[in-house]
Amino acid sequence: MDLRNGVELRSLGTSPAAFKEDLLSNLYYRRGTTVESASAQDAYETLALTVRDRLAERRARTAAAHYAANPRWVYYLSAEYLLGPQLEQNLLYSGTAEAARTALEACGFAPDEIAALDVEPGLGNGGLGRLAACLLDSLATMDIPAVGYGIRYDLGIFKQEFHDGRQVERPDDWAFQGDPWEFPAPDDRQVVGFYGSTSVVGGRTVWTPGETVLGEPSHLLVPGYGTATVNIVRLWRAQASEASFDLTRFAAGQYAEAVQDAVRAENISKVLYPDDSTPAGRELRLKQQYFLVSCSLRDIVRRFRLRNGDWADFASKTAIQLNDTHPVLAIPELMRLLVDEEGLDWDHAWSLVRRTFNYTCHTLLPEALETWPVDMLGRLLPRHLEIIYLINAELLDEVRARFPDDLDRVRRMSLIQEEPTRQVRMANLAVTGTTRTNGVAALHTQLLTSTVLRDFHDLWPDRFVNVTNGVSPRRFVRLADPLVSALISDGLGTDRWLSDLSLLSGLAPLVADASFRSRWRDVKRANKAALGLGDPAALLDVMVKRFHEYKRQQLKLLHVITLYHRILAGGYDGVPRTVLFGGKAAPAYHAAKNIIHLINAVAARVNADPATDGLLTVVFPANYNITLAERVIPAADLSEQISMAGKEASGTGNMKLSLNGALTIGTLDGANIEIRDRVGADNFFLFGLNAAEALTLRSGDYRPRDHYAADGELRAALDVISAGAFGGVGQEVAASLLDRDEYLTLADYRSYVDRQSDVDAAWRDQERWTTMSILNTARTGYFSSDRTVADYLTHIWHASPVRVDA
Ligand code: GPW
After folding, report:
1. Is the domain covering 473-780 a CATH 2.130.10.10 domain?
2. Which of 152, 618, 654, 703 has its CA 20 to 30 A from that of 633?
3. Which of the listed residues 123, 128, 273, 642 should we mutate to test ligand 1's pocket, taking the one with most ligand atoms within 8 A of CB?
4. Domains of the chain: which residue ranges?
5. Minimum mean pLDDT among 239-248, 284-293, 374-383, 491-500: which range?
């Protein structure tokens, strides 16, 4: 391969012999040790470097091909990425898994012990962060020139421990040992300003920041599967400038004061905000958001300039996706760069900005729509607030022209909320400053345009599109479940399904193949045995997701207590179940933490009671993350997707589980609807109110106590909780359900519990269950993130692949 500077790139071999040679050379020359004295950590780091080199070679060829093509680039801006463990991914994508194992063993290293040292970078909270990682995986697999931008938090999502059943959060110093997958790029560092003031000099506005911080990038490789393309995700870390260390104070013995400015600067990328769906409302968070935006935009502009000379081409060469409102300050920031720094006139700049950006909304919860106090934003970013006011003036002129005499509409659509306090509405800014706004599932997009963003839809209906989420089949089928992957490849006679998931439909005829069916069952059983939680013969009933009241883990818990009561009553006729919970609650989300505590208390009681032996087990492994998800999902029989209809934007765990052959019990919410449409109503356990019914009930006088009074089993379950049988925490949870029941848990209880009896009936007929399971996998190829990316390309990005020679 001829690179730009004319240097031929030596091709690194992937044979065991070539791999071993490089492994040893990396051990000697880069790690500075020998086989005899190498620690497990030495061996791990050396392995990582050897694998990384093989992808780095492809990266170099990718960069050269992209540079030559000067294509429209896709940039994904996201405050969160849940990339998952890198070693297994990079072994698979570089095609060196076997060679590596052989080479390690030949050197006397234990491959599994070494692989266990790989630490997953937990730079996200939940679905939104994992979606970002799946989209990057698909962009690379589909040969789209793309870069992900994010923040390199020193501390990722907290490690969850349980102490007496209560969630305790521990810092996640994920890069404590150093991160062998990272390429630091200090030459590309950026300077980010905060605070200060604006003035007008020679007709142009100049912002003079009161404080500056350095953004230092490093990147991780994002390999495509079955292609030579290797993209990158570039993560920014805040660094104090040299000048912020106060030598005079240090000399005077004032050690803390000497470093206080530096510490403040570096705190910007210190920790991931562990909130999910609720804005933190803190100045540091706003600083993080601007830090990400400022560094990334300057980098994007730098890259544009490498190949282009005319600003008029910027939007045709650049598509920037805003992952929720967290990076929406990019809109005023690009206006500032173009107008203040580059001297473009406002209208030209606005046209470029609007054609460059698009926005994905991931929620319907009104409390999750970010707003920032005008005072705070104006203090931290004075020029950006001025620009937001200018954008707002044009927006409101357009609203008044289209809807004369509709003052209330003007008030609702304004970028500035006036009452009770003045706030900047980031979602309104996002829709105003972009070409397209998308929801993440069909129902979500429909509800967005008819409720929270209705006024904007009235004004600009063509701006709204749906792009239903998807998941990476490489990560969540091939890496998570090598056994089922081998079986699928065998059944289809090809492994091409890994990059064309629609091929899974070819499994449907195999439901008639007795040998395939029994192997399918064996794989599920083996995955449960490997997970090692509960009896592998029992139905594994899984609810894994962040803890939030709208997701209704409390409904699942009421079901568990009901089953327990039925067992205690004697003559239990349900099937043996292991109920598995997994997930974290935001540290400040008291009600969610109560639910976690209560689940652990119920689990302790149920599991200790000999009456439940062989019938019911409740497990709650701590610290659910990508690593654990990859073990739980392939083992699951039943997928719990039981949010109050109209609240879950999409869900993606629902897709991962169904794709892996779990059957869903769920409400008509988010993407559940689309899953059910595809797998067929007969292969999906539907229950509960739909979104319209839930809305009607919520807006009338809903009385949870009526359900309590009418339903003996529900009453019994709530009574034991209220009575304190599981501690004081239960009393709080029960009171909240009986007094408010914000998310209609009691209204859906009977329908849910009865549907679970249908689950039991289906499970008892193992032949029927197997058919349903295979059909779930065969019919959910649509939920590949490759399809999601294809939809973004067609409707939003309009970017084309650039092939990289293998
Ligand atoms: F509130 N989601 C998330 F919309 O994981 F910003 N974190 C968040 O902060 C938000 C949404 C936000 C999730 C949605 O809850 C889930 O329904 C969806 O599948 C996922 O984002 C990916 O779109």
Report:
1. no
2. 152
3. 128
4. 1-67+86-119, 70-85+120-467, 473-780
5. 239-248
Min mean pLDDT across 13-22, 80-89, 213-222, 593-602 is at: 13-22
Task: Give me the half-sphere count of Cα atoms (radius 13 Å) on the Cβ side of residue 442.
Answer: 9
Number of alpha carbons in the 13 Å side-chain half-sphere of residue 300: 34
Is 652 tagged catalytic? yes
Res. 1: pLDDT tops 50 = no
| Average pLDDT rounded to a whole number, residues 446-451 | 98
**More reliable by pLDDT, 5 or 245:** 245
Among 368, 470, 370, residue whose Cα is nearest residue 424? 370
What number does CATH give the domain 70-85+120-467?
A: 3.40.50.2000
Indicate if 546 belongs to the active site: yes
- Model pTM above 0.90: yes
Residue of 551, 556, 566, 787 with catalytic role? 551
Pocket of ligand 1 (CB under 6 A): 125-128, 131, 276-277, 324, 362-363, 368, 440, 469, 648-652, 670
Q: What is the CA radius of gyration of the chain?
A: 27
Measured CA to CA, the distance from residue 723 to residue 704 in angstroms comes to 18
pLDDT at 275: 87
Q: Is residue 545 annotated as part of the catalytic site, yes or no?
A: yes
- The alpha carbon of 126 and the centre of ligand 1 are apart by a number of angstroms equal to 7
Q: Identify which of 354, 454, 461 has the alpha carbon closest to the alpha carbon of residue 412.
A: 454
614: Cβ–Cβ under 8 A, 6 or more apart, which residues?
A: 535, 576
Torsional sign, CA 590, 593, 599, 604: negative
**Beta carbons of 550 and 365 less than 8 angstroms apart:** yes
The encoded tokens of residue 616 equal 């019911």
Which is nearest to 231 in space by CA: 302, 136, 364?
Answer: 136
pLDDT computed for residue 8 by the predictor: 63
Reference 796, options 472, 463, 468; nearest CA is 463
Predicted local distance difference test score (pLDDT) of residue 9: 66
> How far apart (Å, rounded) are the C-alpha atoms in residues 249 and 692?
64
Are 70-85+120-467 and 473-780 equal in CATH topology? yes
* Cα separation values, 103 from 12, 515, 561, Å: 15, 36, 52
Residue 3 pLDDT grade (very low, low, confident, very high; cuts 50, 70, 90): low
Bridge pairing between strands 183-184 and 211-223? antiparallel
219 is catalytic: no
How far are the Cα atoms of 83, 133, 432, 462, 662 from residue 436, in angstroms, in the given order?
A: 26, 21, 9, 8, 34
Burial of 565 from C-beta contacts in 10 A (0-12 / 13-18 / 19+): middle
pLDDT, tens digit (0-9, with 9 covering 90-100), for 527-584: 999 999 999 999 999 999 999 999 999 999 999 999 999 999 999 999 999 999 999 9
Rounded mean pLDDT, 88-102: 97
Distance CA 633, CA 656 (A): 7
Q: How far apart are the C-alpha atoms of 617 and 533, rounded to whole Å?
A: 9
Q: How many angstroms separate the Cα of 232 from the Cα of each of 82, 84, 763?
A: 14, 15, 44
Ligand 1 centroid–CA 652 distance in Å is 9
Quick: pLDDT tens for 191-245.
999 999 999 999 999 999 999 999 999 999 999 999 999 999 999 999 998 888 9
- Cα 295 versus chain centre, distance: 22
CA-wise closest residue to 626 among 501, 480, 780: 480
Residue 276: predicted pLDDT: 78
Provide the ipTM.
0.98
337: which DSSP letter? I
Length, in residues, of the chain: 806
Q: How far is CA 406 from CA 400, 455, 460, in A?
A: 7, 11, 17
- Tell me what pLDDT residue 668 has: 98
What residue has token string 């592998």?
536
Residue carrying structure tokens 């105003």: 432
